[in-house]
Amino acid sequence: MTSKERGILIVLSGPSGVGKGTVCKALRGYAPELVYSVSATTRTPRPGEIEGVNYFFKTREQFKRLVDTDQMLEYAEYVGNRYGTPRQFVEETLNEGKDIILEIEVQGALMVKQRFPEGVFIFLLPPSLDELESRIVGRGTETEESIQSRMSVAMDEFRLMDYYDYAIVNDQVEKACSRIQSIIVAEHCRKDKVMNKIKQWMVEVK
Ligand SMILES: Nc1ncnc2c1ncn2[C@@H]1O[C@H](COP(=O)(O)OP(=O)(O)OP(=O)(O)O)[C@@H](O)[C@H]1O
Ligand SMILES: Nc1nc2c(ncn2[C@@H]2O[C@H](COP(=O)(O)O)[C@@H](O)[C@H]2O)c(=O)[nH]1
């Protein structure tokens, strides 16, 4: 097999406020070789958020055009806004043999699972529901209405956890990062084992 082996697609999701963004940010220090997908959204930027770094900020019309022209790998409506993963960047990264991580909500994750069943799906859990709410409140970015909507959506999201390959608790950021790294290492070992088996069969049938 001469072509480069594809990288692994990792999906990290879980309820709003569980710490996906915080963990991904810390993970950049621990796993600098991982590539991070930047999503598109119709929500307005929060103070400090930068176009192309945190999100690609789009109007509803621009977002619809991206979906209609099949430029989105997945997309979802979440608490009144649209979010989606630009397809081309993900495919190019995987074809270059690099691993990429998507930090997305659950509906979108399930859409990715249909299209990329070989992906690795990780659900991030809070230590408790009270802690989840304190984290959303403590972040100071949401209105009371948005906090309640996000907590309510979280209940539906927990019910879909069975579709994931792994569930890990974000009790401490460093521990969550190390759990994700262990999963990635294990998935590479599993993939290498399968590839070695295929290579062995190819030699045998020659
Ligand atoms: N392990 C942790 N212990 C304590 N606080 C944490 C931990 N992880 C994240 N937080 C805090 O929780 C808040 C929410 O984190 P973050 O914004 O990363 O969540 P998120 O899952 O990315 O949310 P969203 O889906 O809404 O973007 C932040 O204020 C962050 O500092
Ligand atoms: N399906 C997708 N969900 C996404 C994407 N990018 C982010 N998200 C998720 O949306 C909610 C809300 O995010 P916020 O920045 O407004 O707090 C959160 O769960 C994100 O993980 C995406 O491309 N697709």
From TrEMBL:
PROSITE patterns for this protein = GUANYLATE_KINASE_1, GUANYLATE_KINASE_2
The residues that hold ATP are 14-21
User: What are the GO MF terms of this UniProt record?
Assistant: GMP kinase activity
Species whose genome carries this gene = Paenibacillus agricola
Cite the SUPFAM superfamilies for this sequence.
P-loop containing nucleoside triphosphate hydrolases (SSF52540)
Say where the protein is mainly found.
cytoplasm
Please provide an example of a Pfam family that matches this protein in its UniProt record. Guanylate_kin
Its localization reads: Cytoplasm
Similarity comment: Belongs to the guanylate kinase family.
Keyword set, alphabetical order: ATP-binding, Cytoplasm, Kinase, Nucleotide-binding, Transferase
From the Swiss-Prot or TrEMBL record, give the protein name.
Guanylate kinase
Taxonomy, top ranks, is: Bacteria, Bacillati, Bacillota, Bacilli, Bacillales
Q: Which PANTHER family does the UniProt record give?
A: GUANYLATE KINASE (PTHR23117:SF13), GUANYLATE KINASE-RELATED (PTHR23117)
Under the heading InterPro entries, the entry gives: GK/Ca_channel_bsu, Guanylate_kin-like_dom, Guanylate_kinase, Guanylate_kinase_CS, P-loop_NTPase
